Amino acid sequence: MVSSKQAADAGYSVEQIRARLADGRWVRVRYGQYAERVDLSGLAPWDRQIVHHRRLVHAAVNSMSQGTAVVSHHSALVLHGVPVWRADLDEVQLTRTTGRCGVKAKVRHHRGVLSPSEVEEIEGLALTSVARATVETAARSPFEAAVVCADAAMRHPGLDPDQLSRLLETTEHWPGSPTIRSALAFADPLSESVGESRLRVLMRTEGLPAPTLQAAFEDDAGLIGRVDFHFPGEETVVEFDGMMKYADKPRESLIREKTREDRLRALGLQVVRIIWSDLDHPTRTAMRIRSAFARSRRTSLVG
Distance between CA atoms of 265 and 239, rounded to whole angstroms? Predict the structure, then answer.
């Protein structure tokens, strides 16, 4: 990231800056902040959004006086590599100890007091720790989005459990404190993707029993594998398929999946596969799982 002044100090004239923008060598990230163009066409849409947000963060900090702001909330989680969901990635989140709070030029300025242990440095930027950024984000998010971040944060090697416990006390009277507490109480590091986290919330919201996560199954041929969710009382497993389309999968992958499901069913298990679009229809999706429970019970009675 380079500002107009930094480019001028490095010897670029106004005409040279304009020429680089005109021929596509540079892109304008925000007013007066530029970066080299990078081909992102090979990335998935959500990965392009993450790259875009990281650039916005660098541009926002580069436009401010050094040491006056700390990257926070979902912007800090993005820099830590923690997945976020339903976060506004067009808006940068910064925390300041002085100055006004509010939104200006798509940068939201928060006022807050940060202890030294709650601030780290990544890519030359000061940002709140994984624990701090998680509670900050949860305070401003719906429960489902807060759980997505909390599940991922629980798996992050940089999470300090002691700091997280202290923050639970510190944030007791924050706006959004009930969501912080409920999301962290529900969080589970065994939930290994955004889709799995959302599906866990769906199951809870729809009144399904709590499943066992990442249960392993074997048969006479050896290990079949781990399943995302197992309902032991219902002899049912639920798998979340993060692939957008089955048509995009190689034939060999589809054969392996079918063989794996056949082996699970041979153990007497019902298998339900959930995809992204199913998460937008929670009642219907929960009914599919309950139908699997019913089939399992009927099979048991016949047996």
Answer: 13
Q: For the sheet with 119-122, list strands across it.
A: 102-104, 107-111, 92-96, 70-71, 125-128, 119-122
E strand spans, 102-232: 102-104, 107-111, 119-122, 125-128, 212-219, 222-231
Q: Which two tokens stand for residue 14?
A: 């106004």
Tell me the residue type at 93: Q
Say how far apart CA 212 and CA 227 lie, in whole Å. 9
Pairing of strands 222-231, 236-241: antiparallel
Into how many domains does the chain fold? 3
pLDDT of amino acid 244: 52
Q: Which pLDDT value is given to residue 252?
A: 79
* Residue 25 per-residue DSSP state: S
Judge if 52 and 152 occupy the same domain. yes
Mean pLDDT in consecutive groups of 10 residues from the start of the chain, 303 residues: 95 96 96 94 94 97 92 98 96 89 94 94 96 98 98 97 94 94 97 97 98 97 96 96 61 83 95 96 98 90 65
Residues 222 and 234 in one domain: yes
For 41, the token pair is: 């066409």
Say how far residue 259 (Cα) sits from the centre of its chain.
Answer: 31
CB 136 within 8 A of CB 73: yes
- The answer to whether the beta carbons of residues 222 and 177 sit under 8 Å apart is no
> Is residue 193 domain-resident?
no
Q: Within this chain, do residues 250 and 133 fall inside the same structural domain, yes or no?
A: no
The confidence score (pLDDT) of residue 245 equals 47
Domain range spanning residue 245? 198-302
